[in-house]
Amino acid sequence: MGVRAPDDARKDDRLTYRNDGFRELSREESLQRLADASVGRIVHTRDALPAVLPVDFLLEESGAVLLRTSASSELVRAVDGVVVAFEADEVDAATHSGRSVVVTGLASVVTDPEQHEQLIRTGPRSWVPWPVEVFVRVEPELVTGRELVGGRTLYGVKLPS
Fold first, then answer.
1. What is the rounded distance in angstroms from the CA atom of residue 19 to the CA atom of residue 11?
2. Sequential pLDDT tens for the chain (161 residues)
3. Strands 39-46, 49-56: parallel, antiparallel or unpaired by DSSP?
4. Is residue 127 a contact partner of residue 70, using CB atoms and an 8 Å limit?
5. Is there a contact between 88 and 40 (Cβ–Cβ < 8 Å)?
6. How far apart are CA 51 and CA 135, in angstroms?
7. CA-CA-CA-CA torsion sign (13, 16, 17, 21)
8. How many CB atoms lie within 10 A of CB 127?
9. Distance of alpha carbon 67 from alpha carbon 134, whole angstroms
């Protein structure tokens, strides 16, 4: 039989997965941590199966995730007008700590010419420049995050090393 969490922890609505020891982050905390990340993963559907692609990004003030990619990429065709997930994390294996943030929402290609021109100057830089690039925005409909600090669970129990 496993170790049971204290009754007050089991009732805490902020726990993402009850009794796993991670602390759920608020929307604001999640966005703050996401702003510090440099690379994330976009999760979408390809051929009716989940697909995950690492991408560089920029977090807009509104919490929207902005990607820059080739106008002819498979990614653009797969995500434009579709609900996707975007995830970024940071893990420190030495201290057994880390965090993960997920933004779920509708992805769409930025089509406004003025906005596109502005994003060319201020938006994320592509690691692989293309002759024709587009920006994809993921609106933050749902923002969730979890963290484990210093190898300790939410209940103060030290994790085995």
1. 10
2. 444 444 444 444 444 455 566 889 999 999 999 999 989 999 999 999 999 999 999 999 999 999 999 999 999 999 999 999 999 999 888 887 889 999 999 999 999 999 999 999 998 888 777 889 999 999 999 999 999 876 565 565 665 55
3. antiparallel
4. no
5. yes
6. 19
7. negative
8. 10
9. 8
